[in-house]
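Can anyone check this?
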Amino acid sequence: MRVFNYKTFFIIIILLALLVASYFYYIHENQKQEILFFDVGQGDAIFVNLAGNNEILIDGGPDNSVLYKLGRFMPLYDRSLELMILTHHHEDHLFGLIEVLKRYRVKKILMYCESAKENLTDVLTEFFDLIAKEKAQILCAEDLTKLDLNSALLIMIYPKKNCAVCAADPGGNNSSLVFRLDIDQGEKILLTGDIEEKAEKEILATNAPGILKSDILKVPHHGSETSLIEEFLAEVSPEKAVISVGQDNKFGHPSLRTIKRLERMGVEILRTDEMGDIIIKE
């Protein structure tokens, strides 16, 4: 006569329960959408986690601290990024991307190609060497109007082909990519790199009214006094503004003028130097 083994039965039930729980956790994690403005000191690094493990990294900050951030917010088994975006060539945006390329599989990279040809520094040369080794696809911002990201739409705003303002500042602040990220059933986020007044005026003059309107603004150039003119801010008309900035930085960012301008419009201000990593869940 066979004796029923309750211990074995209990273990099987526990394993099945864990399997079911893991499945639903995986489904939940695969569907969540969030935007993370990493605290990387005086620099920018923004991680966008879209449904279906569609992950995007916008800039990489001034050092390799972005690796620690990605390790915290990406699953251990996930070592790939769907898209990497370099807004411009300054090292407080570029350097961390080099470290990421050494350790992660990157499928596509979006950048301003015209500017890259004119301003090939040693750091940028290393960046391109790693891209070639990775065999990542390069997307030129000046050739794009929109980019479908499945659960989001990226709308390119600036720069356009033969950008005169960019030509006067190759690889610099006014060559920064500006684009709107429209999350499906979520918010619109305007990413601005380090653009300054000249680029802001160019954007206002060469784009249709309404294209800048967004729920969240990544404040350009860490809140510098040289950025965020009133006309530009009025066109964006955000509910929230994120300032990526280092504590007690030598540049005095963000400027009091920028803070007061945002406050007058009733915009909620979120700062990485005060809050650390800023997470916006969709």
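Reply from J.R.: I decoded it. The chain has a mean pLDDT of 91.
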